[in-house]
Amino acid sequence: MVRWILAAVAALMMTTGLAAAQQGPLHIEIDEGVIEPLPYALPTFINEGAGGLTSDITRVIAADLSGTGLFREIPESAHIQRFASFETPVSYPDWQAINAQALITGSVGLSGGKVVVKFRLFDIYSGAQLGDGQQLAASPQSWRRLAHKVADVIYARITGESGYFDSRVVFVSESGPKDKRQKRLAVMDYDGANISYLTDSSTIVLAPRFAPQGDRILFTTFETGFPRIKMMNVGNAAGQLLPETPGTMTFSPRFSRDGGSVIYSLEQNGNTDLYRMSVSGGGAERLTNSPAIETAPDFSPDGSRVVFESDRSGTQQIYVMPASGGEPVRISFGEGRYGTPVWSPRGDLIAFTKQAGGRFFIGVMRTDGSEERLLTASFLDEGPTWSPNGRVIMFTRESPGAAGGAKLYTVDISGRNLKAIEGVGGASDPSWGPLLP
Amino acid sequence: MRMDRAEKIGTGVSAALHAAVILWALIGTWLFPPTPTEPVEVKPAGMISEAEFAALQAAAPKAGEAPPEQPEVPAEEAPAPEEPTPEAVPETPVPPEKPATPPEAEAVPDMSDLTEPTPPAEVTEVPPSMMPPVEEPQDTDAPEFSPRPRPKPAMRVAPTPSEAPAPDAKVSDTAVAETKPEETAEPEKPVEEPKEEAAPPEATTEIVTEATEAEEKPTTSAPKSSPRPRTKPTPPKPDAPKPATPSETATAAATPAKPAKPAKPAASKPTSSDAVADALAEAMAEDSGTGTGGLGIAKNGPPVTAGEKEALIVDVKACWNVGALSSEAMRTSVTVRVDMQENGHPVSASIKMAGYTGGSEAAAKQAFEAARRAIIRCGSDGFPLPAEKYGWWQQIEIVFDPSKMRMK
Which of A332, B98, B189, B296 could be cross-linked to B252 through a Cys-Cys bond (beta carbons 3.0 to 4.6 Å apart)? Predict the structure, then answer.
């Protein structure tokens, strides 16, 4: 009997050894890494007759990339290799020595009255160029857009998703004391540069919304004494009030994804419901019919569904329903009140404002309400809007006190890289437009 | 059995002594009557009259006198004292063990520590009278504090002699013009060491948002998010067992064992499972070391243990940076194969993606690039793999699965 057992054990070990000897490569699984900004080097582009624009463009590219929180620039003083020309070959060991993982080289010149930027991106540890070199040209006045374009290309090549730097944001510019605040519509670059005002401060304006195409803006104005929806052309600031039923108030508008129709809230006889109308005219279509207040609608990226807030359950919560109307489905069930839902351009998340425990939060959840994550928390955070690539959320943060004011902030959807947009002053109600062509 | 003479003597002596003791017990009391003891007066303490108690008090020694020895009186039999007035408390010599202090006496202790806080100044109309005036210190003969003992003179000698003091300044006989600092001569700034500017590590394996680190968290135990059920792990692809061809086995048998290189220390502590793996490896080594019929195991040695695998994992994941990956790439698991050199360095050109799951091809490409960077970066110093087991890790397959680090 003992002999049999010994023989069986020996056979088992032989079999195990055979299996081990015959298996392929050593197999390991890694499910945890590190989250840190990717170090990159950006030597000042070679000046090929562009003067000061060379360093200006280089700095804007660096600000774009480092501002995402995903990349960290290695200071130029630490660089070992110096580039005499755009064609200077890259010495990879020199960049590996300072732990650079990506290298951007380029040049800026003038040609035919236009600024011409050439650049290349290198993967240091692969020892190869990442994508082809590229050349962009624009008028000298648009040199910032040129830099944003370069940064967008680099961002896309490294992360695999499109950038968001060459985009604009419409918002409400605020000035004056809190009890007598003046509000104007304004448009700026995503980073707060190039601010231009679309309205004066004679009337109150609220909740501007970019068209998905970036050519028009919807907002609520009090120029008639009552809230009404106005559509404005961004190019020439020409606007028109949308038709309405007498004795009603309309507000909280949002373009459909094709820009052909508008969904909005209409208050009549003390009841607020959602309606939809074509921007080219025609009658309004009622989408909800309940005694509760339904407002802050937004379309899904495919245009098939609408997310909005309603207090039909007794408290302010988020609901989703078909774009043509129908039975809404509540998706927010956490503690507190939820509002201002905004559908991500990717379609996978919904950003929202949450109020609980005397604080305000900006958060995201899946379209079915699961995986709710709160990204920010403060005295007053509200009004999220998505970047064109769905990676960043911009929102309004208001500080407490009589001297408090509203500012615009951005945060990555991971909750990292929370920062204020400097140089804008008082601002609220941002709406992020699409990437510019 | 007959007793000898000595035994008889002993038995006789013992019998005589026993008889004497019994006789003494019987008639000893009659012959020598005991002295009668004085009767003990037994009187219950409770029966002592108040006058007797007062007499005892009066006969008690005054302070400074040596107290006469007295029989202890049980505490429970002590007369219950009358409720003394607070004024009588200090006069009555109450023994420390006196029980049941009256309630009034509890008000006497210093309650200064328990007094209510002083009301705010703006609502106080009269100055607080509870604060005694600050008295000026009076000169008294009695020192308030004992003088600090003077330190003993040091008997030790410093190990190193102190520097000689500077010579006393002397007034020069001749006047010297006042010197002025040269305007151009600026003090030299200390040369700073070149700062390491090459990407200081700020890595983290966990994302903490402002909402989670806020001090005033919503008082709720409800989960902030409903966790998504984890995807079913993909079963490992069974590698088709390659039958060992005669030529391969012959080559394996003919090839001499490669010289063992010093193995790098494992970066992680061996776990309990390592012991099992090590034991199995040793058993297999013993089993397959010699004369196994050319299975190829003798060349490779024992297999890589779990601890050695863990050390490799720790090494690679330290360089696997997913911070710049897109959301879709964070949902993509890639399998990467890499050929290894015997010195533990990866062959960079051999790194290739063997497969991916969970994302698009573009996302897989981004995830693969991050994985490749991790292998090259951390492999530049060589992975901690035992050289004697090179046959087991000459090619490595690594699955990079960011699902645990996925943000959404």
Answer: B296
